[in-house]
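Training component of the fellowship. As part of building independent skills, the fellow (R.M.) carried out the full modelling exercise for a liganded target. The chosen ligand was 1-deoxymannojirimycin. The inputs are recorded below so that the supervisory panel can assess the work.
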Amino acid sequence: SGAAAGPPCRDFISITLGPEEVVGVGGYNNSKAWRRRSCWRKWKQLSRLQRSVILFLFAFLAVCGVISYTSMGEAWKSITNKSLDDQRTEQEIPRLKLANPAVLPAPQKADANHGDYPELSLQKPPKLPHVRRGPSNLQIKAPQRNTRLKTQHDTMRAVEEQVEVDKVEKTEKSIISWRGAVIEPDQSTEPPSNKITEPEKPSSVEAEDQKEPVPINERQLAVIEAFRHAWKGYKDFAWGHDELKPLSKSYSEWFGLGLTLIDALDTMWILGLKEEFEEARKWVANDLVFDKNVDVNLFESTIRILGGLLSTYHLSGDSLFLEKAKDIGNRLMPAFKTPSKIPYSDVNIGRGTAHPPRWTSDSTVAEVTSIQLEFRELSRLTGDEKFQKAVDEVMKHVHTLSGKNDGLVPMFINTNSGQFTHLGVYTLGARADSYYEYLLKQWIQGGKKENELLEDYMRAIEGVKKHLLQRSEPKKLTFVGELAHGHFSAKMDHLVCFLPGTLALGAHNGLAADHMKLAETLIETCYQMYAQVETGLSPEIVHFNLHAQKGHKDVEIKPADRHNLLRPETVESLFYMYRFTGDKKYQDWGWEILQNFNRYTRVPTGGYTSINNVQNPSNPEPRDKMESFFLGETLKYMFLLFSDDIDLINLDKYIFNTEAHPLPIWVPA
Ligand code: DMJ
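Fellow's submitted model of the complex:
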């Protein structure tokens, strides 16, 4: 071996490993001293230039070493700080772009509205069981498309497996859920432990997860197409604003909070519109700000915004929506600071002040009694009792009030005295409608334990039967009229058509079987409110004929009432009726209605419009407004009506708020 000859320095390693060097003469220490002397001799033999070059190389390597040590330190710091970073609010969390074009749609160019996205590197898909995505037992699976939607379905399936993405700048990691919601893996979105009522995990969830999803059918595809058309108009002309004005290609503002976008979030989720959902989600993350000096209506913002955010949180598991829900929920609370605790109608969400309408100190009964599902759920999720306390107090108070007529309530309540006002007028239509709906739905939401709610509901339905039901001529349609100071009026708002669905839901939950019979009769009437009209679309209000007259139908329409605002109530009830009976006629009726919406309210350049005259097919007189509930409710209920998948929003696990936003039943059946 080269050991005996005194090896040059560059052979040092081979000499060290040689067996002689380890066990030979002089031992290991002697050999090291010899090598040091030999190297020094060699060094002295080098020219000055050679020595300079070697020294320069050593210096260079030393500098490199220092630099890499510093950057490793930074990386370590960012790892150890990660748990802190995860607690940052959504606005601070860098926005993410999907990185794998084979799995997800190609990244879109960011525009002024939608923000800019850093590049991301694809990570290994995470193992799903380790990812905490909010209340997983409540998240729903995508409806499966048929072959026409295969590409998108494949995309969704792939997304379902999830990809973990890594932001280059801050090395924060996030999960893209199967519907495109961006969720931080370490951030728990589980409700906190001090919940008021702990929702039990639905027993069938595991089995349900393994079930093959039901394919989407042609009628559902038509709904998706309609939604996309409506969304195109909103996106092109009204993005981020409250409502689309499809004819003037502009928008109208009510609260200035992107009402249509928020109302439509869970509809997109349910319809499987991943790209649209993702884009809207970015708007919520980056542009939805509640710290605004603006008056909002407590009821409308609760059912549309708070309800929409809560249901989207449940469906997607994305904590962004819960954060936003908490924000708006807190900002609405000043409404309850009244002498009677009956909330004011309006709140300034920036200033934290509330007030009744300018001309009165009354609130509308339906408004103060149809915000409970949302605030109760907010308490359950946050562990903060104040939301539930405030709305429960309203219900308890209304329960004790006099001025009811066999369970039927007047339309107004005073925020100072807490008493009903304008006594003697009873309707199931505007200003009272959802009071009845929420009695039943709160009872279901809370696990059928709150007896006062059930009592009030049952009594009210008896009141309806006793005072408000009549039959029309010539077809003898059973309808719900109104009572004013003892006088019956054969007037029925389209809004009343929520009632068959609510009655059917009650019967499904074990209430009297005759409620179902009444539901079947009433939904026929609501359908006739469409079928007997020239455009096949219902007016806002109808008057039924109580006496047979030659050449007259059951339904009469006054000039002031012949508009259609794209309202959902009939389609909503058709959905419940189909779910509970399986009778296809309900789907067929809904299909007719969808076609008539397409015929008379669809605007070619995008969007749908309310119309002024349902009696004139040649000129229905477009109103140039698409209400947010068309996307939030009407199209969602259409899609669910045409579905044969009872697990697509299972009615034993979810309860729809009055704006069609599904919230979990706390103790599911
Ligand atoms: C929606 O905002 C809700 O359904 C509310 O309960 C009644 N009005 C509209 C739809 O018609």
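The panel noted the following from the submitted structure. The first strand starts at residue 120 and ends at 122. The chain has a mean pLDDT of 79.
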